[in-house]
Amino acid sequence: MKITTEYIRLEQFLKLCGLADTGGQAKLMIQEGQVEVNGETELRRGRKLYPHDVVKADGKTIEVE
After folding, report:
1. Distance between CA 52 and CA 21 in Å, rounded?
2. pLDDT tens digits for 5-40?
3. Please, is 7 exposed, middle or buried when counting C-beta atoms within 10 Å of its C-beta (0-12, 13-18, 19+)?
4. CB neighbours of residue 12 within 10 Å
5. pTM of the predicted model, to two decimals?
6. Fewer beta carbons below 10 Å: N end or C end of the chain?
7. Structural domain boundaries of the chain?
8. Could you say which of 3.10.290.10, 3.80.30.20, 3.40.50.300, 3.40.1050.10 is the CATH number of the domain covering 8-63?
9. CA distance 2 to 27
């Protein structure tokens, strides 16, 4: 998924990629430990993602470009 800014917050990224329908759903996914960033479980929804970070959720893996 290509971004046009320096970074994107994890919660926004999940919505933009279609892994979460709403911000509330994204928040729950993160709080319940269902999201990995660069191979590690991420519990902070405000985590900043930069190009080359890899997000895994809902059985899908997406790289930030």
Report:
1. 24
2. 999 999 999 999 999 999 999 999 999 999 999 999
3. middle
4. 17
5. 0.92
6. C
7. 8-63
8. 3.10.290.10
9. 22
